[in-house]
Specification:
Oligomer: single chain
Helix content: over 70%
Distance between the termini: 37 Å
Strand content: under 5%
Number of strands: 0
Shape: elongated
Radius of gyration: 19 Å
């Protein structure tokens, strides 16, 4: 239920809130109007990456419920999570570089740096979890062959 709610909230943000916020920013601060569409695109893309993680998590939880988590099919969903995190990381690095090179105040670049480091840590954790799932799947397959 929580995943469905979170997915729905993200869709609302993607379609109404963020585009509206950046349009409002462009009207209120015409000197930053050129950032409207790049910020809208980047934020919608990042939320899309989060949505991929949500759907993949949902599928993995369904596989856990059905006792099918230790299968090759589950690795497809874990790979989707890893690739979504990698895509979000690339987008975050791009935004960080752009903002970092054009910022007058170090606050926003530092905040973006912290978020980028957080995404990096989550991505590395998912790589480790994927390796563990692969090993557990192989062990379960071997045990089923013995039994």
């Amino acid at each position: 239920m929580f995943l469905v709610l979170l997915f729905g909230v993200l869709v609302v943000f993607q379609t109404f809130s963020l585009p509206g916020q950046f349009a409002h920013m462009a009207r209120e601060s015409p000197e930053f109007e050129y950032l409207r569409w790049p910020l809208t695109g980047a934020s919608v893309f990042l939320l899309l990456c989060v949505q991929v993680v949500i759907v993949s998590t949902w599928m993995l939880l369904t596989m856990v419920k059905n006792d099918r988590i230790f299968s090759e099919e589950s690795l497809v969903w874990v790979d989707a999570i890893v690739w979504a995190i990698a895509a979000a990381w690339l987008a975050m690095v791009g935004v960080l570089l752009y903002v970092g090179l054009n910022a007058e105040d170090p606050g926003v670049p530092l905040a973006l740096f912290l978020v980028t480091v957080g995404v990096t840590v989550v991505g590395l954790l998912m790589v480790v979890m994927r390796a563990l799932l692969r090993q557990a799947t192989a062990l379960r397959t071997d045990m089923e062959a013995v039994i």
